[in-house]
Amino acid sequence: MNIMKDIKKFLEGRIGEYSFYFQDLTSGYTYALNENVEMVAAGCMKLPIGMALLKQVEQGEVDINRTVKIKEEDMVYGTGILHEFGEKEYNLKELLVAMLLQSDNTAANKIIDIVGIDKINEVLRSMTLNNTVLNRKTIDERNTKGEIQNYSTSADLSSCWKMLYKKTFLNEENSNTIINILKRQTIKNKIGYYYPDRLKREIANKTGDIESVENDTSLISLGKGNFILTVMSANLPSNVYGEVTLSRVGKMALDIIETGWI
């Protein structure tokens, strides 16, 4: 599997800082770079938030059918569309879908309000995501300078996928709910950019970006098995540069799996 070193060499030659994690869920083979370095999570934070919400549902602390009203003061611009609909009521399942499918900031913040930042961080610790912390609610990602950030690592985000795939944290129904929602989300311009459409439909992923940061964490289902691939970045010369870098890594990983994997 030494061919994976080509990805490490590629990232080390790119401008910026990078964290990378790859795992074959069948054999357990893992290859990583800076996987435990804390980096700005951006929208990728919504993956563990969604898992924390459903854990609270399973434990009877939160009712997934509870209806809440999105008020004017709740609306956050940037990603998502709930802010376009004005004041309206939604149940928590609808907010979960909006947060994951559209990376909706308004939905994410209402979920954070209901579960609570302290409780979410407590759940993250119970998941052994020791380098992941929710410090604040989401804001318009176009204007984050000077803001305190939420942090994670490529190893922690990849652990989320492993838990979902193996159903070791949430029950089977809720694990599959998150995976299937994220298979349907349409932001495939990073790791999955060069993948053919038939494969893009088999990628469950969650992206995140703010200025000079591009992240993508994914569970990829292929004929040769199921794989986790996470790439995080920071201090990029431009976000487009980061998107190109992540898409190249995604293509390199796909080529390695399809041509050299047993």
Q: Could you say which structural class the secondary elements and strand pairing correspond to?
A: alpha+beta
Q: Which residue ranges are poorly predicted, with pLDDT under 50 across at least 5 consecutive positions?
A: none
CATH-defined superfamily: DD-peptidase/beta-lactamase superfamily
Distance between the termini: 10 Å
CATH architecture descriptor text: 3-Layer(aba) Sandwich
Give Rg in angstroms: 18 Å
Q: Give the averaged pLDDT, no decimals.
A: 92
The backbone outline, from C-alpha atoms, is: globular
CATH topology: Beta-lactamase
Helix content, binned percent: 25-40%
Separate helix tally:
9
Q: How many strands, which pairing sense, and closed or not: the largest β-sheet?
A: 5 strands, antiparallel
Write the H/E string, N to C: HEEEHEEHHHEHHHEEEH
